[in-house]
Amino acid sequence: MGAEDAAEKALNLLRSRLCNPTFIFRPLCDSPDSNYSKLKFIVSSSITEACNNSVLLLGPRGSGKTAVLELVIGDLLLEHPDMITVIRLNGLLHSDDNSAFKEIARQLCVEHQLLFSKMASFDDNSQFLLAMLRECGLAHKTITFVLDEFDLFTQGRQRLLYALLDAMQSISSQAVVIGVSCRLDADQLLEKRVKSRFSHRKLLFLPPSKEDLQRLVEHVLSLPMDSSLPHHYAAEFNAKLQSILVDNRFQEIIDSYWDSYPAIRHLAKFLFRAVSSLNLDLGHLSLDNFKTALPSIKRQPKMESLRDCSILELYLLVCMKRLEVKEQNSYSFSAVIKEYKTIHDSFQTSDYFGQNVCRRAFEHLLQCGLIGFTDGRAHNQGIEFRPVKLLISPSELTQGLKSYNSCPALLLKLCA
């Protein structure tokens, strides 16, 4: 196998890995104390010991709740293919009790090859659910209810949650209710009658640490030594990768991306873009692959808006930054114009415009979202009197001015 063929095969292997959530999240499940192990024990105990369980998976978006849940369900479906049924609901779609019961009935009918009636009433669907729980329990088959956006199911009368948890008090039922939510206080939203039937098991998910992130990147991008790839090629590829991983410049790139998008699924997209730029002639990854991928995938809407601004609008933004340096947290259009006139008088700039033109530029900055009103209640006041503030950080403003093709040198000096 030629070097270019080996590189192309390695590229396809890495791309397939980065599109496979099961492969990406597997390293986070190795420890017996991991949420994967805890969740798998809770669900598997219901299957093997014919008991009922309920648990909440809580944590910020991007912390891996759904990915770990899918790993657990996938593994249990392989281990117990005829003993588990999975019903999935999402609070964004099924928070209404009537639609939730109808969707449960539909999925149960599909799973057990029964005829589903779209005209069935709320009571019909709820009775059907109870009957299916009883029949599946007698057949030692566990129904696993996955309630994504769990906190949205706590709105209203919570009849769905009560029906599920109350039915699980029966000795004949065999079910697991798994709630997934970004709200850490989701269990506190339950009514008293629902809360008394909930097991109060909670698994807290946190974003991966830097050490976890390092292991994850190494796990995803390292080539296997026992594959059909030439042994010497895989060894050289992995050695080059190790030298990149310990490079401080690589750490800065990863930290920069992670600060903006702290979610593994976004990191996988970034790594996919970096891998896709691999030079087949070179045959291995380089630091330039990651440098190139960063600006191409890291969206900066504020920076994009800056590139569409006029010189006058840039002057107004710099004036606002100078006012904030003077510890003015908010300021009116009049204060900005006063600062703009001060700059003109001090430096005798040629870029000076009248107040009406400045007002139109100010309104455009509001429309672009680069500045915003600090008080939403003063709608009856004129724009020139309402306090505003910058919605772009000083570093972003400085970086945007440097990348602006015809930015006056004075602005860069004033913004420094």
UniProtKB/TrEMBL annotation:
Its main location: nucleus. It holds the Pfam family AAA. InterPro entries: ATPase_AAA_core, ORC4, ORC4_C, P-loop_NTPase. It comes from the Eukaryota. The keyword ATP-binding applies. Residues 55-200 form the ATPase AAA-type core domain. The keyword Nucleus applies. GO terms for biological process: DNA replication initiation. Residues 216-400 form the Origin recognition complex subunit 4 C-terminal domain. Keywords: ATP-binding, DNA replication, DNA-binding, Nucleotide-binding, Nucleus. Belongs to the ORC4 family. This is Origin of replication complex subunit 4.
